[in-house]
């Protein structure tokens, strides 16, 4: 489609940005809600059948192509079971965010679950954890108050980087579900050689990356008191 000559670059970006932010936040919430429990249980049950099952689920999520998962979600939850709206329907409502956020969040949550498992296993082997157990603290407090807070630091780093990538625009997801967004706007601008939109969208993406990195540093300080000192 031809670019709208009546709209400025700022207006076109302003129109596409809210949809991208909604999708990125929803996908990140889905990923975190699934990844942290999966990674924690896998670490606590390391070497057992539960660990093997959860690890297999994580590897499946990482290796599953998004361009395949999206159409499968539409086929199951729109064609066979019409529970959610289809492509281009109710894009501004919560129901229209469910399937796109599942498509994006599945791959991301698999990565975060593996990172959570690895980081939590390292934290549980530290001396301060043995000291906390020797003092007679309940196991749930040892895991979630002491080990988990330190294990979250690398997870936050990966989540912040991935969130910045989501804000840059998930083009495949936006195309599959016919959603407007910054990624689609940038891709169309490149195809149409609309360099002003390309420059404007690139600048916005760079600013958002810087903002996400700043937010990650702030979350670091909230999670780890040593950084505040």
Description:
Helices cover 79% and strands 0% of the residues. It has 10 helices and no strands. Helix 1 (9-44) packs parallel to helix 9, helix 6 (139-167) runs antiparallel to helix 9 (195-223) and helix 8 (182-191) packs antiparallel against helix 9 (195-223). It is globular. The mean pLDDT is 79.
Q: Which structural class should the secondary elements be placed in?
A: mainly alpha
Largest sheet: none
Rg of Cα set: 21 Å
The overall pLDDT, averaged over residues, is: 79
Total E-strand runs: 0
Instruction: Measure the end-to-end span.
Output: 54 Å
How much helical structure, as a percent, in the residues?
Answer: over 70%
Sketch the topology as an H/E string, one letter per element: HHHHHHHHHH
Number of helices: 10
Low-confidence stretches: none
- Tell me the β content: under 5%
Produce the secondary structure layout.
Layout: H1 9-44, H2 49-63, H3 66-80, H4 95-124, H5 127-134, H6 139-167, H7 171-176, H8 182-191, H9 195-223, H10 225-228
What does this entry show, briefly?
The chain is mainly alpha-helical. It has 10 helices and no strands.
List the keywords.
single chain; 229 residues; mainly alpha; 10 helices; 0% strand
């Amino acid at each position: 489609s031809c670019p709208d000559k009546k709209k400025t670059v700022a207006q076109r970006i302003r129109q596409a940005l809210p949809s991208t932010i909604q999708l990125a936040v929803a996908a990140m919430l889905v990923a975190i809600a699934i990844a942290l429990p999966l990674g924690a249980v896998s670490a606590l049950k390391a070497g057992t059948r539960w660990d093997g099952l959860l690890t297999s689920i994580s590897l499946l999520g990482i290796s599953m192509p998004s361009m395949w998962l999206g159409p499968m979600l539409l086929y199951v939850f729109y064609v066979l079971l019409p529970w959610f709206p289809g492509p281009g329907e109710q894009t501004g409502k919560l129901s229209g965010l469910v399937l796109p956020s599942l498509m994006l969040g599945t791959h991301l949550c698999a990565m975060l679950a593996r990172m959570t498992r690895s980081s939590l296993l390292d934290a549980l082997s530290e001396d301060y954890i043995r000291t906390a157990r020797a003092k007679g603290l309940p196991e749930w407090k040892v895991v979630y108050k002491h080990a988990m807070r330190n294990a979250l630091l690398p997870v936050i780093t990966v989540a912040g980087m991935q969130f910045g990538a989501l804000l840059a625009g998930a083009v495949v997801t936006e195309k599959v579900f016919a959603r407007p967004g910054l990624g689609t706007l940038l891709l169309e601008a490149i195809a149409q050689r609309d360099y002003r939109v390309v420059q404007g969208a690139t600048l916005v993406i760079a600013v958002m990356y810087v903002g996400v990195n700043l937010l990650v540093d702030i979350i670091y300080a909230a999670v780890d008191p040593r950084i505040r000192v």
